[in-house]
Structures are given as structure tokens and as C-alpha cells.
Design goal:
There is one protein chain. This protein has two domains: 90 residues, no CATH class; 139 residues, 3-Layer(aba) Sandwich (Rossmann fold), CATH 3.40.50. Helices cover 53% and strands 12% of the residues. The protein contains ten helices and seven strands. The mean pLDDT is 95.
Length: 250
């Protein structure tokens, strides 16, 4: 399945697109005299509201964060031979005159650099050009690791377009270097799907999650919609949908 088709389906299924599409279908059918279709509109708008509340967004995102943060002692005793950090998109970066890693990618890169200072092992940055960009994401990540975080021994995997390919192509590079055990860096909400993909390559994985998205919002603020809560809901539902697709396909 092409990346463009995948992104289109995600937009149609996940909030806000999914609930809005449901509401639009209800409006269209009710305009044709199907009065019961108004329930679809109500359901779509109701789902959109619920997904936009911190109460629901936090609950959904917390349910995806199945791996705890590592302690310093756990990192140092992990026995990892390399650190693999997964890309999370890019930003335009006009102030730098070129594209740069996204805010999510920067969270992952900062933690990977921190882990390298604790362990002294190489970092493998994984990410390609899924939409045909001129510069692969891993190249941007490696430059940021070296220039902004002072990391040394940075390798790149430039061909992957999704999590499964991150694992497949990174696994080949690491096998060529006789590396079998890694610290895997990605966001806490993405870690379960990433670990499953990397285990299929035969690597030994030590999950090193970062960017925990859970937050505690007191009532009644937890019932008030916000853009941040809507994003939390979308991230969580994206992971569950992706995990289901990977299970069916692989």
C-alpha cells in the first residue's frame, strides 16, 4: 500500500477527519429526507467532542504507553551494542535554510544522545523520504545529533518509510556489523508497535521510551475540548490501528 493511500485512509478514519466525515454523511442523508440519519451527525459530533477532551485523550494515550521509562542504572547495565532512534517527521526550518527534524523527532534525538553519553555505543538514525523528499530524514537526524547534541559514531538508515521498514532495514545494517542487542528509542505511545516490528528481525530489544504524553487534568477542565487532547486521541488511535494492520499483514 502506497504512503499517500495510507495517509489518506488515516485522515478519513482518525479524528478529526473520521468523526467529521460521519457527521457530513449524516447531514447529506438527512437533507435527502432520511431523518434518522441525523443520528449519524450527532454521533460524529459527539465522537469529535469526546476525542477532544483531556479526559478521553489522556485515557487513550496512557493505554498505549506499555513500556516504562528506563533508569540510569538500567541503561548502563542494558548490554546494548547500539542505539536505534526512529524518525518522526520533519519541519520546514526556514530559519536554518533547510528542512529540520520535527519537534517529535527532536525529543527522540535528545534522548538518544543522552543514552549515548551513558553507554558510549553508536547511534543508528532510521528514516527515509516517504513522500519523495530530496533529503532522507535520517540524514537530517544525523546532522542534528552531531551539531546540536555533540554525538559521535552516528550511522544512518535512509530507506525506510514506516515503522516496519525502520525495523527491516535497520536490522540488516546492524546484522552486517554483528550487532544483536539495541536500545530502541521512540515515543512511549509508539513503542509497543516499534518493539514488535524490531523483534521480527531477530534483534534483542531494550525499549527506551521517551516523550511520555500522559498528563493529569483536573475536572471540570478535563471535560473542556482542546487541540492537545484531540492530538492525544489521534496518536493513540493511530497506534491501535497501526498495530492491527501490522498484525494482519505480518
Amino acid at each position: 500500500m502506497s504512503i499517500l493511500l495510507t495517509r489518506t485512509l488515516e485522515t478519513l478514519l482518525l479524528p478529526p477527519g473520521g468523526p467529521l466525515l460521519l457527521a457530513a454523511v449524516g447531514l447529506a442523508l438527512s437533507a435527502r429526507g432520511w431523518l434518522r440519519a441525523r443520528w449519524l451527525t450527532a454521533a460524529g459530533l459527539g465522537l469529535l467532542y469526546l476525542c477532544a477532551t483531556p479526559l478521553v485523550g489522556t485515557f487513550l494515550l496512557r493505554a498505549t504507553e506499555s513500556y516504562p521509562a528506563l533508569t540510569t542504572a538500567q541503561v548502563r547495565s542494558s548490554g546494548a551494542e547500539a542505539i536505534v532512534v526512529l524518525g518522526a517527521g520533519r519541519s520546514r526550518g526556514p530559519e536554518y535554510g533547510a528542512a529540520v527534524p520535527s519537534a517529535y523527532s527532536l525529543q527522540r534525538l535528545r534522548y538518544a544522545a543522552y543514552l549515548q553519553r551513558l553507554t558510549g555505543v553508536p547511534i543508528l538514525a532510521s528514516g527515509g523520504a516517504p513522500l519523495g523528499e530530496k533529503v532522507p530524514e535520517a540524514t537530517l537526524m544525523a546532522a542534528t545529533l552531531r551539531q546540536a547534541f555533540g554525538s559521535e559514531q552516528v550511522w544512518v538508515e535512509r530507506g525506510s518509510r514506516n515503522t516496519e521498514e525502520n525495523a527491516l532495514y535497520s536490522g540488516r545494517l546492524l546484522a552486517a556489523r554483528h550487532i544483536h542487542r539495541i536500545l530502541l528509542v521512540t515515543h512511549a505511545w509508539h513503542m509497543a508497535r516499534a518493539v514488535a516490528a524490531f523483534k521480527r528481525t531477530g534483534l534483542e530489544i531494550v525499549a527506551a521510551p521517551t516523550g511520555f504524553g500522559t498528563r493529569d487534568t483536573p475536572l471540570p477542565l478535563a471535560l473542556l475540548p482542546s487541540a492537545e487532547a484531540l492530538l492525544d486521541s489521534r496518536l493513540a488511535l493511530h497506534e491501535w490501528l497501526g498495530a492491527l494492520w501490522y498484525r494482519l499483514r505480518y
